[in-house]
Each structure stands twice: as C-alpha cells, then as structure tokens.
C-alpha cells in the first residue's frame, strides 16, 4: 500500500456478499497488525439497493468508518454501474478499480423507467475515472463454480494477484476460518485462485 | 470459535461495534441479556445469544422491547449484571417501564444500549433517544470508537452498580454497524446466582422520596465520571474554534481537521459521558475560546445541554458564540459525514476543501447522470411478500370500494413503493397498522364504506399486534388482518420469535401458532400459501365482503433468503423465446414492468423477457403472471 490511510470501497448490490468480502479483507489486515475500520452502508442490503463498504487501512491510527469524497484509492465493484456510481463520488485520478462485468438490473431498469448503460461505454467511463481499471467476468465464473455469491472472493483473488493489498492464500484461509467456518475454506480458496487466474492476463499486459 | 468469547486477553481483533459492546458486557460478567431485534442494534444480543451456552448466561429475543427491559430488570434487581439492547423506536416501547424502574433503582448492574439510526438508514423514523436519559435522570455514555464501545460497556456496569441504577449507552449506526480494531480484555470466572431480596420491596411510591433520591444518584454519577478517560481534548491551548463532539462525530471532526490542515487553529473536545455533563472538563475548555461548534448526530442534545450549562456559569466564562444546529451552521437533523464536516469547517475557516481538477469533476457528474442507473429497493427474487401484495392488489381492484391497506414495520414496508405495487397506505410504528385498521373497521356507523385491511409480519404480530386484535373483537370491528408469515424476523437477520420452534440460544422451544391465537379470541381465521396467487386473491376478496367482525388471513411462505440457505431452488426457470413475443404481445411487459421481480429482466437486444440466472430464486411464481405462458418452470 502506497498511502496511509489506504481507502478501499467495496461496491455492489444487496445480496452480492459485499459485507463479507470487506470483512475478510479487514480481518486479513488486522491479523497483520494494521488498524482497519469498515463502514458498512447496508440498511437495505438484501433488498436490491446499492451497497457499499468503506475499508480504511492504516499503520498508524483508527480512521472513521466513512471515506471523504475523492479519497478512494481502490474500488472493488461487484457490479459495473456501481463502480461508476462510487467513482463519481469517491474517485480521483489515481484510483484503481477492479470491476465485475456482470450487470445486475434494478427494477427501475427492468421496468423500463431508466436504461442500463451499454457495456463498452460503461467500461470506457470507468477507465476515464481511474488510473487503472481491471474488468473480470467474476459472476460468470462463479456460476460455473455453482454459486454466483463466490464472485466476491474471486474479486479478492484479483486484488491479491494485482499486488494491491497484502492478501495471500494462507492469510485469507485463516481469515475465512475465523469469520466463516473451516468447512467454507476450500470452495472459497478455489474462488480466490480463479480470481488470480482471471486477472493474470490483464496484469501481464501492464508489463 | 466466536470472536466475542475468545479468551485471549490482549489479542487485537476486528469487531463490529455491536460485537464490541457485547464483548464489554461479557468482560463485565453479564449473565442476562435480552432484546427485540431492531437495526442498528440487532447484533449485540445476536452475538451474545451465539455464545450463551458456552458462557453459561441467559439470552433471549423477547416479544418486544418493554418485556426485554422487564426481563433484564428481574436480573438487575436480583444482584446480577444484565444488558438490554434496542433501536431508538424500541426505547419508546420500553419507556413506560423505564420511567418507573429508574425510581426504584436496581441491586445489580443494568446497562441499556440504545442504537440510534441517524438519517433512518434502516429505520422508518429518526429520533434522538438521548432525551430519554435526561427524562429518566440516568447517566448517558456515547462511544466514539470500537475499543471505546467495549470499554464503555464494561465501565457502565461498574457505574450502574455503584449508583444502583440503569446506565444508558447511546450508539449510532456508524459505530454499531461499523468494524474496527478491539483489544480484548479478561473474561470473569465466578458469577453470582440471582437472588431477589424479598425483605425489601421495590416501588417508586412515594415519588416525593424516590424522585429526589434519583437525582442524588445522578449527582453521584457525575462525581464518579468527573475524570473519565472518555472525555478528552486535543488541539491548541486557545483554539480559534472549539469543536465539541460525541459519538461518530469525533472521527469525522479529527479527519476534517487533518485534511484541511487546521490542527494548529481548531481544537476538539470529545465528550463520552454526555449526561450528566462533565462540568469541570467543560468549564476548563470553554474558558479557552470564544467560538464553539457542536458536531453531533440527530438533535442538538449536547448543544442545548452545554448552552444551559453556560447560562448557569456565565460569570466564570467569556462571551462565546455557539454554533451548531440551533444557529444553522449544521443541518438540524440527520447523520454527520466527513463531507458535511469538511464543508462546515471550510465555511467557518475559509480553508478550501481539496478537490480534483474541473475536467475530472465534470466527468464524474456525467458518470452519475448516465452510467449509474437508479436502484430502487425491491423485494428479493422469490420473496413471498411480492406474491401477497400482488394478490392484495388484485382483490382490492376486484372489490372496487377503494379498500385501505394499513401498513406496518418489516420488509413488507417496501409495499409502500413500486416493488409492492404501492399497496400500503400508512406506515408508522410496530403494530400500529392493525390498530388503525381496527379503528377504521368501526366507522361504517359513521357512513364509511371503504374496506379496512392491515398487513403485519409474523414477528410484528407477536410484538404488538395482539392487543389491537382483542380490541377489534371486543369492539366488533370489521377489518381483515393479513399476517405475512415468512417464519422469520427477516428485516433484522432472521432472529427467532414466539412463533419459532427454537429460541435465541438455539434450543428447542414451544411455538405459538398465529392462527390458533387468532381463533382463540374469536376471529375467523384462514391460512393460505401466497404463492398460490389466484386462490389468495379470491380468499381476500371473499373475506372483505362479509361484515361479520374481525378476520385474519395468515399468508404463510418461508422467507426466500431462509429457503436459499436451507435447500437448492425448487425450479429452473426459463422464458420460451417462441412464446414471449415481447412488445407485440399486448401484455405491455406485465412481468418486468409491473410484476417487477429482479430475477426477470428485459433483454434489450432480443426484445423479450429473460431470466437472470444469477438472481432468480427458482420460486416459479411468475409462471402464473405471464398471459402467454411463456415462462416455463422445470424441476431443478
């Protein structure tokens, strides 16, 4: 991490495992001696609304549970239009985004009241608001693994492989067994490996 | 191993604010804990329930908040330590008992945690529960960090025992529902057995004795808390502006000062013991400045109390400008945020808030406008409430007398929005839908013609609907209560209630059957599965035709989120592209535009409906919605 505090937003839609994802990242970092604060905006998390977790990581002190506007260093978006929403408020020129490409349509979209942005345009917009954006078909891979909820761990795998946060298979394994249970370890570590593999081609293009 | 019972003193862990409170209670030797669930407070009792067996303590989800406070009071008047937790609305329910208990006092320790929800993030209302501490003359503590949430709970028990009265902790969403580092302390080994001293009865009468005694307890609390570590000042000796803050406001104040580079100009007085006020601390701080800014969440409680304190000490203090909610420098309601505090401090000091270059800001505006489509709240895919409200809508349309559906508190409150077809017409407190419907059901004698209906959830039914039902039987009210029984307190995290076969501690428990209870007081009662939409709609229609007193319809189907945890989806759904002819159908997109299940999406390229397999819960209800039978369900 090149900044203190390092500010991460995990964005998505209710039911995507946003809260758990941020809790696992937080646990990994607290176990490494960091002060971590997570603010969870999930009043209506299960009910189709936008959900955000703010994760603030510092070697020095405990920060507040909300990131000030324009102060996000990393955005992990479990849904692409949520990446745009969060970047519009918390992004800056140096923000990095890791984005799951699979849209979740709101009832406003399915009902025809508003349009969902077209994929290429949305990706372009996300790129224009970040210093680097990675796009992953995490939900598609999670569905192949049998459960779309695994997309959140796939995204964490990508964060790890991109070298953004000090998350490894072994420290994540410890966090999963602390936060969830030991029987959940194996399927989640598989998802973690899938995330690493999915982002690999995009990382090699950087070099 | 659950985090909150980890017996490793000194270990630093990531904990939710609510878990930190629960851990503090365990370290204080809590033996009884009770609550009715309500966010943002639910995880306090939820996490204690999870460790009840191993810790040898008694934890319950009570039927409502008043009973919860009574249960813990039984412990705290019998020499043991007890904790009750609730959200702001819960304290309204419990307040009648609180305003008597405070006068008798207790013989153990009783900590009452109230988690307020500034801006109503997971609430229908916003209120500032701190006013009750003043009303009840009990000490009030407000944590600003996760560590402090634990320490304060631990010390609150000590204070409660020392003064022999209830101590209130007010948390807020940004503490309760946030996570941070907490260093664990010691867990106690030996705990006392509850014993009520029958030789010394507890009664607030006469109040001429008990009320002054209560005031003396509060004075004693002020004395004990006068050097509390929960109050501290950080900043220059003579700050240009002294910020007085509490709760989550402290984090935001500190960070805004950092960002704006104001640490040599502004000081922050954090108050953790907000009632009674720490007089000496305040006096010393107020002497150092001519401007004070209050940053607190919801109402100007600390602000008004300090203003009154200032009035009583004006001869010892300089002239001071007080700025805050009363002066309009801070919005008069709602929660604080880093941006709000930045704006207030920037406005007062003239220091600009750093921002990106204008071209970037312009791009963000466009992103928000065109790339972040609105996301209205919606019932989950497979939610039985969607079917129930669809059936109610059908029945009321068929009836044609402009029937009124009085609403209540739970996931189904969303029935006031598009996802529930705008069917709910009122939304107030727990149980008040049934009470209002009971009232309206008696107005035929005044010439009223509209059918009167109410919905409530299963947990709400037990919490506070039952008294309205007895009222309706006795008064002969013609109303229909529809109980949306999804077998869960779904909104707050699936806690058991008196209708559940298990209790908070996971042990088997006798369950009260809703229809049996309704019938036992003389209500005609039927039970239906809302997934059978046609039958449900006809039943409702038929029940509101007869003017034969109060009736109950229990619409029973398990919460989709609970089902998903237990078993695989029942059906694999698909839309037959041959049968769905899109906009040529004439149904005007009934399934996506009107029914609005998030599992059904409109495929813009194909111009037909489609199933989103990542969202669809496989409930199969939409098969009955499509007029062209284009939606197909196959056994999964």
Automatic annotation (TrEMBL), chain A:
Protein origin, superkingdom: Bacteria
InterPro entries: IorB_Oxidoreductase (IPR052198), Pyrv/ketoisovalerate_OxRed_cat (IPR019752), Pyrv_flavodox_OxRed_cen (IPR002869)
Gene3D superfamilies, per database record: Pyruvate-ferredoxin oxidoreductase, PFOR, domain III (3.40.920.10)
A GO MF label: oxidoreductase activity, acting on the aldehyde or oxo group of donors
Keyword list, A-Z: Oxidoreductase
Domain Pyruvate/ketoisovalerate oxidoreductase catalytic: 14-195
Protein name per the record: Indolepyruvate oxidoreductase subunit beta
One protein family per Pfam: POR
Keyword Oxidoreductase set for record: yes
Bilayer-spanning residue ranges: none
TrEMBL record, chain B:
Organism superkingdom: Bacteria
Cofactor requirements of the protein: [4Fe-4S] cluster
Binding site for [4Fe-4S] cluster 1: 580, 587, 591, 626
One annotated GO molecular function: thiamine pyrophosphate binding
Residues engaged in binding [4Fe-4S] cluster 2: 597, 616, 619, 622
Enzyme class of the recorded protein, top EC level: oxidoreductase
This enzyme's EC code(s): 1.2.7.8
Catalytic activity: indole-3-pyruvate + 2 oxidized [2Fe-2S]-[ferredoxin] + CoA = (indol-3-yl)acetyl-CoA + 2 reduced [2Fe-2S]-[ferredoxin] + CO2 + H(+)
Entry note: cofactor: Binds 2 [4Fe-4S] clusters. In this family the first cluster has a non-standard and varying [4Fe-4S] binding motif CX(2)CX(2)CX(4-5)CP.
Any one biological process term the GO annotation gives: small molecule metabolic process
4Fe-4S ferredoxin-type domain location: 571-606, 607-636
The keyword Metal-binding is assigned to this record: yes
Record-linked CDD domains: TPP_IOR_alpha (cd02008), TPP_PYR_PFOR_IOR-alpha_like (cd07034)
UniProt keyword list: 4Fe-4S, Electron transport, Iron, Iron-sulfur, Metal-binding, Oxidoreductase, Transport
Record's function text: Catalyzes the ferredoxin-dependent oxidative decarboxylation of arylpyruvates.
Subunit structure, interactors included: Heterodimer of the IorA and IorB subunits.
The name this protein goes by in its record: Indolepyruvate oxidoreductase subunit IorA
Originating species: Desulfomonile tiedjei
């Amino acid at each position: 991490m090149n900044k203190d505090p390092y500010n991460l937003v995990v964005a998505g839609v209710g039911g995507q495992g946003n809260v758990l994802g941020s809790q696992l990242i937080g646990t990994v970092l607290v176990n490494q001696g960091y002060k971590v604060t997570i603010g969870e905006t999930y009043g209506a998390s299960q009910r189709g609304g936008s959900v955000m977790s703010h994760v603030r990581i510092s070697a020095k002190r405990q920060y507040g549970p909300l990131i000030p506007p324009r102060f996000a260093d990393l955005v992990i978006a479990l849904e692409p239009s949520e990446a745009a929403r969060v970047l519009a408020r918390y992004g800056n020129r140096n923000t990095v985004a890791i984005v799951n490409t699979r849209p979740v349509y709101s009832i406003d979209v399915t009902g025809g009241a508003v349009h969902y942005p077209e994929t290429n345009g949305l990706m372009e917009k996300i790129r224009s608001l970040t210093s680097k954006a990675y796009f992953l078909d995490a939900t598609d891979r999670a569905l192949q693994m049998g459960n779309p909820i695994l997309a959140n761990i796939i995204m964490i795998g990508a964060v790890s492989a991109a070298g953004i946060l000090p998350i490894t298979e072994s420290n994540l394994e410890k966090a999963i067994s602390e936060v969830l249970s030991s029987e959940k370890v194996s399927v989640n570590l598989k998802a973690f490996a899938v995330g690493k593999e999915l982002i690999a081609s995009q990382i090699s293009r950087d070099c | 191993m659950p985090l909150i019972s980890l017996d490793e003193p000194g270990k630093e862990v990531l904990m939710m604010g609510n878990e930190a409170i629960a851990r503090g209670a365990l370290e204080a030797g809590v033996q009884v804990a009770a609550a009715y669930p309500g966010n943002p407070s639910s995880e306090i009792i939820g996490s204690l329930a999870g460790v009840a067996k191993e810790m040898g303590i008694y934890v319950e989800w009570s039927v409502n908040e008043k009973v919860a406070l009574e249960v813990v009071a039984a412990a705290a008047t019998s020499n043991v330590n007890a904790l009750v937790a609730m959200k702001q609305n819960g304290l309204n329910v419990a307040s009648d008992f609180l305003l008597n208990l405070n006068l008798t006092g207790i013989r153990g320790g009783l900590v009452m945690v109230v988690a307020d929800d500034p801006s109503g993030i997971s609430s229908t209302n916003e209120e500032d529960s701190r006013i009750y501490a003043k009303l009840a003359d009990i000490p009030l503590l407000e944590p600003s960090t996760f560590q402090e949430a634990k320490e304060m709970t631990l010390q609150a028990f000590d204070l409660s025992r020392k003064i022999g009265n209830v101590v209130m902790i007010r948390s807020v969403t940004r503490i309760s529902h946030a996570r941070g580092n907490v260093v664990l302390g010691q867990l106690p080994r030996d705990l006392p057995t509850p014993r009520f001293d029958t030789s010394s009865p507890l009664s607030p009468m006469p109040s001429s004795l008990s009320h002054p005694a209560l005031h003396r307890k509060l004075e004693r609390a002020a004395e004990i808390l006068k050097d509390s570590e929960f109050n501290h000042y950080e900043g220059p000796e003579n700050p240009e502006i002294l910020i007085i803050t509490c709760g989550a406001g402290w984090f935001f104040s500190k960070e805004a000062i950092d960002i704006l580079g104001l640490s040599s100009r502004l000081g922050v007085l954090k108050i953790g013991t907000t009632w009674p006020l720490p007089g000496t601390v305040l006096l010393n701080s107020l002497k150092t400045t001519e401007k004070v800014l209050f940053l607190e969440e919801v109402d100007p409680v600390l602000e008004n109390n300090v203003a009154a304190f200032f009035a009583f000490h004006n001869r010892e203090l300089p002239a001071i400008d007080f700025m805050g909610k009363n002066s309009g420098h801070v919005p008069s309601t709602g929660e604080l945020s880093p941006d709000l505090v930045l704006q207030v401090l920037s406005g007062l000091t003239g220091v600009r808030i750093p921002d990106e270059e204008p071209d970037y800001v312009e791009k963000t505006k466009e992103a928000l406008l065109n790339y972040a489509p609105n996301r209205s709240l919606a019932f989950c895919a497979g939610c039985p409430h969607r079917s129930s409200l669809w059936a109610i809508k059908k029945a009321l349309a068929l009836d044609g007398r402009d029937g009124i559906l009085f609403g209540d508190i739970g996931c189904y409150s969303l029935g006031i929005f598009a996802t529930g077809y705008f069917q709910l017409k009122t939304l107030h407190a727990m149980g008040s839908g049934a009470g209002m419907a009971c009232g309206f059901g008696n107005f035929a004698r005044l010439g009223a013609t509209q059918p009167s209906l109410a919905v409530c959830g299963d947990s709400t039914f037990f919490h506070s609907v039952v008294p309205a039902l007895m009222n309706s039987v006795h008064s002969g009210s013609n109303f229909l209560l529809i109980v949306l029984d999804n077998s869960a307190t779904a909104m707050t995290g699936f806690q058991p209630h008196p209708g559940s076969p298990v209790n908070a501690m996971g042990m088997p428990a006798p369950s009260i059957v809703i229809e049996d209870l309704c019938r036992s007081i003389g209500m005609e009662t039927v039970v239906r599965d809302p997934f059978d939409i046609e039958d449900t709609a006809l039943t409702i229609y038929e029940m509101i035709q007869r003017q034969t007193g109060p009736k109950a319809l229990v619409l029973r189907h398990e919460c989709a989120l609970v089902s998903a945890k237990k078993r695989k989806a029942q059906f694999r759904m698909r839309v037959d592209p041959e049968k769905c002819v899109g906009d040529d159908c004439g149904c005007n997109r009934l399934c996506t535009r009107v029914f609005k299940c998030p599992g059904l999406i409109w495929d813009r390229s194909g111009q037909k409906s489609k199933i989103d397999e990542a969202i669809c819960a496989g409930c199969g209800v939409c098969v009955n919605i499509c007029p062209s039978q284009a939606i197909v369900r196959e056994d999964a």
